[in-house]
Amino acid sequence: MGQRKASKDGDRKVGRRALLIGGTVAAAGSAVLARDELARLWWRVPGVEKPRKEGEVDYAGARWVAASDANWRRADRPDDYGIDMVVVHVTQGSFDSAVRAFQDPGHKAAAHYIVRQDGHVTQMIRELDVAYHAGNRDYNERSVGIEHEGFVDRPQDLTDEMYEASARLTARICARYGIPVDREHIIGHVEVPGTDHTDPGPHWDWDRYMRLVREARTAPA
Predict the structure, then answer these.
(1) Is the CB of residue 136 less than 8 Å from the CB of residue 194?
(2) Which percentage of the chain shows pLDDT scores above 70?
């Protein structure tokens, strides 16, 4: 007890000095964090709304059909979450059944896009928002999800029109966010850590798809 009393004032001086230094560093760090947080969340202030147009799409030629807002999370990507990945899915059903599922609030999952077998592209969630498609929060926040109409065990479902339309879509997404066109950044749902899904399945031709994406990426706009 006596030794503690003798050093008490010295401890307080050191503590004050450390507090001042630490406080300066913490204040600087807090200022950076606060600025970043405000940049992400300014539109959440009551009465302030990030500008959006109803029915607006991110990919020219896509048709807008809104998913249930229970199946995605409002965000401000890429300002709050960087986008560096495209995740390829297969619906395990028809196009219409996938649309119905994504509009069902009880489904709790949806992708940004669905590509039909005839090459038609439907967008159901804006790219700036986080879609619940990958079964992994980190991957959801950093990726755009693309569903493809069909079944993983039916190679005939993977049509030329689907491959070509999807490759053009993926190429535009990669160009928009500076995503490398490689298999580390364009992946299948099966490759997402923790998932129990197998899509796009063994019949998905990755060599063909990546070639088409590269060709579309370098083609004149």
Answers:
(1) yes
(2) 77
- What phi, psi does 123 have (nearest 5°)? -105, 130
Q: Output the DSSP codes for 5-25.
A: HHTHHHHHHHHHHHHHHHHHH
Using the CB atoms, write b or e for 129-140: b if 16+ within 10 Å: bbbbbbbbeebb
Could you give the percent of the chain with pLDDT greater than 90? 73
Distance separating the N- and C-terminal Cα atoms of the chain: 79
Taking alpha carbons only, the member of 204, 171, 188 closest to residue 87 is 188
SS3 188: strand
> Distance between CA atoms of 111 and 177, rounded to whole angstroms?
18
* Upstream peptide bond of 105 is cis (omega within 30 degrees of 0): no
Instruction: Look up the pTM and report it.
Output: 0.79
Segment holding 136, helix H or strand E: none
Chain-centre distance for alpha carbon 98: 19
Rounded mean pLDDT, 23-30: 45
- 8 A C-beta contact, residue 102 and residue 71: yes
CB contact at 8 A, 75 and 69: no
- Helix pair angle (160-177, 206-218), 10° resolution: 50
Q: 203: helix, coil or strand?
A: coil
Instruction: Please say whether the beta carbons of 129 and 73 come within 8 A.
Output: yes
